[in-house]
Amino acid sequence: MELSEFLARPKLNIEFYKRDVVTVAQNLLNQYFVHKESGSYLIGKIVEVEAYSKIDDEASHSFKGRTKRNASMFLGGGHLYVYLSYGINYCANIVTGEIEAGDAVLIRAVEPVYGVSKMAINRTSNNVVFKEMNRDLTNGPGKFSKAFNINLTHDAENLLGENIFILENYSLREEIISTERIGISKSKNLIRRFYINNSKFVSKR
DNA sequence: GCTAAGATGGACT
DNA sequence: GTCCATCTTAGCC
Known about the structure:
3-methyladenine DNA Glycosylase, Chain A, 5 helices, 8 strands, DNA-binding
């Protein structure tokens, strides 16, 4: 698909993000995540997410209240929360709900749809550029952030602005699977991981 | 002040 | 399958 076809779509607006975290998580699937950087675009279709809530969720970074790291979770729907995971990888979240709600949706995987060669360059390690359209390019929260060049400088970014935003794509009817979340030990019983069934870019494990 | 655990990924057996 | 890199936080001395 041409870049102009993506950019003709409307951005998700503040009303979309201000709803409850599980609703937003489910509705983020299939939409186009966009990072515009120095004039070039990286675009991915969101295929896997997890919801985290301050209310009833011990696995959420916000559960015990505000810290320096999680402050942007309290900015209200339509912001980005980026944190450093295991001291190594960045993870990107979409903040939802009202100001001070402390809820957010972790983006676990996207399907690359535009700017794939730049994503492959961003995922270079040991001087080896990643093979394009390999599923390992973006099939995990840290991999997605690296491919889209998202780091702590993007923490608290406003998703209604010009750098990072999400474009509407409601057209396709995909089968959505709901499961327990991955890689956590508390509140494991909550069914708050959602992914598109037929996507090969859904994370492993 | 110290230590353990963590919303992970990559290298290796 | 196992191991480990390395930063933040919480909980305990």
